[in-house]
Sequence to fold (358 residues):
Amino acid sequence: MSPGDPKRENPEELAFDGVSDGIEALPQRVDRYGKAKKGALDIGEYMATLPTYAKQTKRLLSCGDYLVFNHYWTVDKVKLHGASLCCMHLLCPLCAIRRGAKALGAYMDRWEVIKAEKPHLRPFLVTLTVKDGEDLEERFKHLQKAQHELWKRKLRGRGSSLDGVAGAVWSYEFKRGKNSGLWHPHLHMIALCENGIDQFLLSQEWHNITGDSFIVDVRPISENDQVSGFMEVFKYAVKFSDQPAADTVHAWRILGGKRLLASSGCFRGVVVPESLMDDEEGLQDLPYVQLFYRFLAKGYTLTKRKECVPVLRRPGELRKAAARAPVVPSYSAADFQAAYEVRLLRAKVHQPIGKQVI
Fold:
């Protein structure tokens, strides 16, 4: 088994979901959430056959019934302001997207601080595996124990393949092996170091610890696309919910409550926000339009819009902002489609959003 290319495997749903997208990206975002909601319904319908989990099934089936977005139109920022979310990210594809994006944003923010303080450090994507097995819980404990021993060897100071690592963040991921059909446990880690990690030495040390696996992978993360490398770590929740319903529920039963995301060194102490809503800090004094979406049979439908004007601390602020701003968008379906097509065109010619296409 050779670990896959992170750029090829990364779920695009995590790409700073909701952090920087404007109104042009909203149709694609709503469509993405709609597909995730349908996945949650499929899992919920399976869980409904298991009476032990009636309470969780009810929460899952109602997750994402409505979404509320605030469009701060003077600066073209769209934020998820409210939603009916179940917050069971190992079960629910919609909550998995939101949870993964929150973790990605928090650790990328920390990475920017680390880069400024320690510019000699570079990020490497490390993948560690153990042998496939029938018992998911046993395989998880085996992988977790091996990971702990690997770090203990570094801390003992007697020589380890991780000696040059100044900080790391990692997640545990499980899926069925393509050929074996058994549970395939592995771990993805972002390791920060100056000169990289010797893959051969890591393989030897890992086999000595696990007794059943020497398969590891170490690759530098491109400076031009560091988000793709980091996403490989934070997609773990999305991958859990992107399996057959029976496997998803089984994994949730075994691993729910377990710590599947951890860090060390200069990555230690990063706080992933508990709220799955978007951060609206710095936007509270701006006018916005609130957009209400309901999930109907075919997906999300815009059912209501409301113009909102905040109470500003200093008289005249809103008047100045409005004078600089474009006309409030109409938010019609046709306008959304036209904006989305323009976005795709600009992406093809690598033209930044907001600049005229020649």
Remarks:
- The beta strands are 66-72, 77-83, 122-129, 165-176, 183-193, 216-220, 261-265, 288-296, 299-308.
